[in-house]
Amino acid sequence: MSNARKLKGRELFEKIGKPTKIVAPMVDQSELAWRILSRKYGATLAYTPMFHAKLFATSPKYRKDMWCEMDGDPNFDRPLVVQFCANDPEYLLQAAKLVQDKCDAVDLNLGCPQGIAKKGHYGSFLMDEWDLVHKLIKNLHDNLDIPVTAKIRIFPEKEKSLQYARTVLDAGAQFLTVHGRLREQKGQQSGLADWETIKYLRENLPSDTVFFSNGNLLYPNDISRCMNQINCDAVMSAEGNLYNPGIFNADDCQDKEKVFPRVDVICREYFEIVKYHELSSASRTAMKSHLFKILRPFLPNHTDIRASLALLNAKSSFDDYENKVIIPVENVVKSIFQETDIEEKDTVVKGDVELWGGSYYTVPYWRCQPYFRPVNGVTADKRIVECLKRKAEIPLENVHEKEIKV
Ligand SMILES: Cc1cc2nc3c(=O)[nH]c(=O)nc-3n(C[C@H](O)[C@H](O)[C@H](O)COP(=O)(O)O)c2cc1C
User: Fold this and answer.
1) Which of 277, 249, 243, 247 is nearest to 263 (CA)?
2) Would you say residue 194 lies in a domain?
3) Which residues form the DUS-like FMN-binding domain (predicted)?
4) What does pTM read for this prediction?
5) Average of pLDDT values for 24-51?
6) Domain with 30 in it: what CATH number?
7) Inter-CA distances, 380 with 229, 385, 401, Å
C-alpha cells in the first residue's frame, strides 16, 4: 500500500472512534483477556504487551505463546495497537507484517528501562541512538499497510525531549505516547511522572499531532485532570488499570460499583473471560498475576486465600482456580454483605484536595483500588509530598500530617 493511501494520525484516530482511555502496553499483563475486561470497564483503546520483534518474526513457538487467532478479533478486541521492541528495521517489519491485518497500528516501544532491554539493546536504550530510532519507524511507515506509532520516555531536559519527539514524528509515527518519566525512573525509583514536560511537548509539537499522556493516574477523575492540564487526545494507564480496571469508568464517577468495583465481581468476570478465550495461552499465563493485583487490598485480610493462590500456577486447572480462589473470594464478600452495618462499612470516602491537585480515597478492602508502590520504603503519597517539597524548597517537617495520609 502506498503512503498516500495510508491513514494519517488524525484520520486513524477518528476512524477508531477518538478513544480517550487507553490500556497501556504491559508485558504479560495487557493480553487478550485483560483487554476484554478493561474495555468492558470503559477502556476505548488497548495496546498488546510488547513483543520482541526478532523472536516474533522467527520463532513460531514464541508467536504461539504471545498471540493467537482471537487476538485482534474485530468483534471483541479492537481498536488494538500491537507493540514491538526492536533494533533491526527488517525484523521489525517482518514481525509487523504478521499482525497488520489484525490491528489498527503497530507501536514501537522506546520506553522499556529494564536490564533486559539494556542487554537486548531496545526500548529506552535507543534514546541515545536517534538515527536507529528514525530508521525503525521510517521503515514501517514506508512499507507497512497500517500506520506506525511510538511510545517514548522523556529526557531530563525539556528541549532535548522535544527534539527527540520531533525525530520520532518526522520518521512517520502517527500517534505519540509520552510516558513522563526518565529512563532511570523504574522500580523503586519510579517516582512521579512529570506532567509539566508532557505538557511542554504537547504545546510545542505540531497541533495536529495525536498525543497520548501516560503516568500518574490513580483514580478515574485523574483522567479529566490530566486531559485538561495537558490538553492531550487521550490518557494511557498501566498500573492504575491493573489494580483497578474501574479506573477507566471516568464518566460514572459517582457510581462506586463502576469506579471501585467489588473484587469478587471483577475476579469472576475476569476468570470467565480467560476460560472462554482458552485459545489464548498468554491470557492463561497471566491469570495468577492479575488475580494477585485485583486482590491486593483483600488478600492481607484473608491470608488462607492468599496461600491458595500462591500455590497455583499457569498449569493449574480452571477448576483449581475456581474452587481455591474465585469461589472462596465470592463467599467471603457475600458474608461481608450480609453484615447488618454493611451500608455504613461499604462507603468510599474522598479526602481533601492534596498539594498535587487530586484527592486520595479511602476504599473498603473488598473493592478494587490503586496500589501505592513504596519507593525506598516510602509510599507514593509521601513521595508526592517530598517531591513537591523539593520543588518548593520548604522543609518536609512543615508538611501537615493530613497531607501525607492516604
Ligand atoms: C506490568 C507492567 C508491564 C509493562 N510492560 C510494558 C510494555 O510491554 N511496553 C511498554 O511500552 N511499557 C510497559 N510498561 C510501562 C507502562 O506501559 C507505562 O508506561 C508505565 O507503567 C507508566 O504508566 P502508569 O503510571 O499508568 O503505570 C509496563 C508497566 C507495567 C506495570
Assistant:
1) 243
2) yes
3) 23-331
4) 0.92
5) 97
6) 3.20.20.70
7) 21, 9, 15
